[in-house]
Specification:
The structure is a homodimer of 324-residue chains.
Chain A: H1 6-13, H2 17-25, H3 32-45, H4 51-58, E1 63-68, H5 74-89, E2 93-98, H6 103-115, E3 120-123, E4 140-143, E5 153-156, H7 158-171, E6 177-181, H8 191-200, E7 205-208, H9 215-228, E8 234-237, H10 240-252, E9 262-267, H11 270-275, E10 280-283, H12 286-302, E11 311-314, E12 317-319
Parallel strand pairs in A: 1-2, 1-3, 3-4, 4-5, 5-11, 6-7, 6-8, 8-9, 9-10
Antiparallel strand pairs in A: 10-12
Helix pairs in contact in A: 1-2, 1-3, 5-12, 7-8, 9-10
Chain A binds a DNA duplex (16 and 16 nucleotides) through residues 3, 5-7, 15-19, 21-22, 24-25, 27-31, 34, 49-59.
DNA sequence: ATGAAAGCGCTAACAG
DNA sequence: CTGTTAGCGCTTTCAT
């Protein structure tokens, strides 16, 4: 597929390639006549500049890599929507990478992005020890996970979110509150949700979900909870999908929500509020997280960073509905 | 950020750039000694090949553009997950574009993708008349929408899906079934869901949702339905999010589902089955759609297309739960 | 106001 | 088995 190139436009317009480049980039002086000729030629040939060639010269691709566990999750898909939208305002194109939480996959995505000369990356990693992130020359921001001391992390106020959730359960009368969270060994700020829980209840019991993205495993763990602690009357789930599974299991076991059991989730995405409007949850400021991440990343790329804060914490909000 | 390049590796290893290129690409004969020297130099310098330069030469970027209305929707996010996954097996990188259903946005994304020399595009368009798609040299496949006579479309059996949904409502005793669908004027195979509905019921009444991605507008339309036709005892919604809103409005109006009203949705994503497990719906074969689309696109790109079918229709399935 | 020439980092003839 | 050379499509000094 013989692409039409700048040179073809130049020939047709009877000018030099330099001139065509100038009108394309609006640089330097060009007579109106010449500009017109060039523009006509562009139109006639239906010419599109080759951004790959441009990138090679400029050493700037305007590509941003977005690494997350899976886009098929209401939190990440809402986050990704906002990120992509804001990026497009900055002229950035987003390369989507689903690591599926697998170290090897994430590693190879990170390397691929580097080879493709991305200007920067936004990473929501569930893995540790990826060498590629260590390069201090590579602009990266992390969402809700500590990657390295040099990588800023954007997230919401996880401690406060945990506190709001648990305090609410206490306020509505729960005596035996259980917490369900992801793997402990990940050094993520989301562990602060758990810390808040442990600070607030007398005898904290946290169940760990090692396979966050497998609903059946989650359901099994929850059945186990009701088996181990039949007195449970409150659950603080570290995300809304887990909370939904709690509701499902409760129904299956004929436990009435909210009468016998109260449930608070976490994230508060639009998707969940459409599909499960009764869920009481903690709403993260997803759009703000996205905006902050892109702005921060852009500052690092442009080297215009004034604020060197390494952790940005955004406020959360309790959304009361009918499950607690 | 002075990138290390192939030439630096060559110098350190004491060989020519060609030789380095050869070991990188495993092309031609290289002595073990030389290969070793080069590999050591690569490691020492922590060298990553520049894929932009490579792409410029090869006229092949391995980029695929993915245009959809919004990734923040269970159907599209599940589709995107599978597409990205399969693409990554083919060595394709996915550029994510959310058109938000806006013509101008979609147009500028399409042009951006062309300038970036994508090898192909997968498009789920909600717009008509985008010039960029007309270029017969550009490999494109469409999902569930007719873009042009030369662009193959992948989708599921929308007529059969509609038939299954409506027949089920009839089978469980509904007498006054209403259908809710997206804008009529889009020439999409999904209009076949409506056709099936109209073929099956005596006095078809279809409500049109012009703003598919605005839940409040959807709710208003549904309230209108119960106002206009209080006898309604069955709703076939053209997607699960609409069905969820029906459930919400029914609850608000104290209409008991499934006793007084039965609802069937459409899509059957994992997200919906986690968050709204009670919903009866038509399950689309999302993974198959993704796989078929990527395979077809790859065939067009590689020019190895044997099967020139312009429309591929995959089977759907009724998933009976508690709303109908 | 416009053009000629060099070069971004890589690969592929073609020699040797 | 390895190196020399040219060129992918574009932009930018530096002339004129």
């Amino acid at each position: 597929m013989m692409q039409v190139k700048l040179e073809d436009v130049a020939k047709l317009a009877g000018v030099s390639p330099t001139t065509v480049s100038r009108v394309l980039n609006n640089r330097g002086y060009i007579s109106e006549k010449t500009r017109k000729k060039v523009e006509d030629a562009i139109k006639e040939l239906n010419y599109y500049p080759n951004d790959i060639a441009r990138s090679l010269f400029k050493k700037r691709t305007n590509f941003i890599g977005l690494i997350l566990p899976t886009i098929n999750n209401p939190f990440f898909s809402e986050l990704a929507l906002y990120i992509e939208n804001i990026c497009s305002n900055y002229g950035f194109k987003v390369i989507l990478c689903n690591s599926l939480g697998q170290l090897e996959k994430e590693k190879s995505y990170a390397e691929m992005l580097i080879r493709h000369q991305v200007d920067g990356m936004i990473v929501c990693s569930y893995n540790r020890g990826i060498e590629a992130y260590k390069n201090p020359k590579l602009p990266i921001v992390a969402i809700d996970h500590y990657l390295s001391p040099t990588i800023p992390v954007i997230g919401s106020d996880n401690y406060e979110g945990g506190r709001l959730a648990v305090q609410h359960l206490i306020d509505v009368g729960c005596k035996s509150i259980i917490h369900i969270n992801g793997p402990f060994d990940l050094e993520t700020p989301t562990q602060n949700r758990r810390k808040a829980y442990e600070d607030l209840v007398e005898k904290p019991i946290t169940y760990e979900l090692n396979n966050l993205f497998n609903e059946e495993a989650t359901a099994a763990t929850i059945r186990q909870i009701f088996n181990d602690y039949p007195e449970t009357d409150g659950i603080f789930a570290s995300d809304d999908l887990i909370a939904a599974t709690c509701l499902k299991v409760a129904q299956e076991l004929h436990i009435d929500v909210p009468k016998q059991l109260k449930v608070v989730g976490y994230d508060g995405t639009q998707t969940v509020s459409s599909l499960l409007p009764q869920l009481t949850t903690i709403r993260q400021p997803i759009e703000d997280i996205a905006k902050t991440a892109v702005i921060k990343l852009n500052e690092i790329i442009e080297e215009t960073q004034n604020d060197k804060t390494m952790e940005i914490i955004l406020p959360v909000q309790l959304v009361k509905n009918r499950t607690a």
